[in-house]
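Question thread 4412

I'm putting together a teaching handout and wanted feedback from people who do this every day. The idea is simple: show students a protein as raw sequence, then show them the structure tokens that encode its fold, then repeat with a second protein so they can compare. Below is the first pair exactly as I plan to print it.
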Amino acid sequence: MNIVNITRDNFEQEVLKSDKPVLLDFWAAWCGPCRMISPIIDEIASEVRDAKIGKVNVDEQPELASAFGIMTIPTLVAMKEGKIVSKMVGVRPKASILQMLAS
């Protein structure tokens, strides 16, 4: 599955109306830890078929970052049926991220 670039324009369709769980990766290009977790997110996106993986660039989408109360990046948010079910801050191992999606 490909990673979807989430913007305020496609947020409702891609996230809120998604029929699958969604993992959102809040990141920025200047963020070292974000660059560390990015290959893990890419790997998950290529393996997981029953969830949607989205990336939100906090510099380009400050409204979305604010709406989710993002204070530190990277922050991962798992959503199901348009509701937040789990949130993690910082670089995490792949197993933790997959468990977050499964909850």
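The second pair follows. I'd like the answer to focus on this one:
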Amino acid sequence: MEALTKHQKRKERERKRYHTYLRLENTVFQWVLILLCVVGLLIPLRPKKSNVEKRDLEKFPEISVSGVLKGDFFTDISTWYADTFPFRERLLTANAAVERLYGLGREQIHGSVGTGDEIPTEYTETDSKKDSEKESKEASAQGDEGGDGTMHVVPEVAGTIYIAEDRAFELYYFALDSANQYIKMINHAAQLLAGKATVYDILAPTSIGIYLDQEIQDSMGCSDQSQAFDYILNNLDDSVQGVQVFDTLLKHNSEYLYFRTDHHWTADGAYYAYEQFCEKKGISPNSRDDYQIQEFDNFVGSFYSFGNQAAVLAENPDVITAYLPKGTNEMTYTGIDGIDMDWQVVADASDYDSGNKYSCFIGGDNPYSIIENPTLQDGSSCLVIKESYGNAFVPFLVDHYQMVHVVDYRYFGENIPWFVEENQVQDVIFLNNADAISESAVSYMDGLFQ
């Protein structure tokens, strides 16, 4: 009976310690919640922009009677509160690290895995979608008198991200309708510019097509970029100078042609495209050894942003190598705000935020940029119509033209045939990566030729 009493006393002491621990745990948890709520209410600490996700965060909603009555106002407040919570990015990074500790492997997929359209061996006509026609009209209206002249920022967002080892890829799916619209757009541009300028079309592969084994791509339903590019280039008008760079990049895929943490190619990848362009144009490219080189380390790009901030990418940042043009490194660009800025073709990005270092090339994505090479006085001029893949490519053109005009088709609002004639442009160079050949992108480009 005495032994049973001792056992009961020991169990009672354990029960009291357990309940004391629970009370302490609940108290700590409650104070942490209170502290987080207080921190969350500190307006000055709330971020307005995400450098990691490269976007502006939600703004506090405007108060309206209808919004309050419908409940939209309170929903918007909830969205604003979560999106602008103080130290949000650090908390997201910490969360990703915790998930990794819980067994997140070295292979990760962020997004939905799908399938692309079958790639025809011959041209297959498809009907343009009504939405695409509407987008094209809206895009062309921006350049019309009385139309919408507002510059709309078009973010570049990565799709489904596949992470293997310390490198990320964006899954590629061929879209037949988009490819056909792209073909029609390029051929239409060539017809309008006939007798005025030569049209070149450079199709840039993305890293998955160059680095990742095709069997692995097939297992995830990805399309073959080489076949997709062949389909497009083989159906361009004979007057269009198609520049095929896929095979060249594939031969050099042991080199650092694409960033591990970002969807862009490196300047070395762009250099091989430049060599192929020079061959098509019939001019001699500069050797990489002829350039002055700058390097910017600690670059962590878009794949980190859209890949759930995977720790393996943050732990393996990229290095940007940039080749400075010999003729000049000076340029001027017109920003989305309409203000002209004197800048550099290759700017010093040493102090840039780790996610923005790719903007060392031509000041990033701007509606219009112009580079005048004072070492040439032959009247040579080109126009590059591009998305962000073109940024690392443009510096190589500077030594071959007196004037290099650059437009980002997502923001530029002028009519291209008029611009070509007004500026006596001889070469019009389209440069698009595989993922940029989409309905919306084609609509923007096509609108410049209406």
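Top answer:
Good format. For the second protein you could add a caption like this: The longest strand covers residues 292-299. Confidence is low (pLDDT under 50) at residues 97-105, 128-155.
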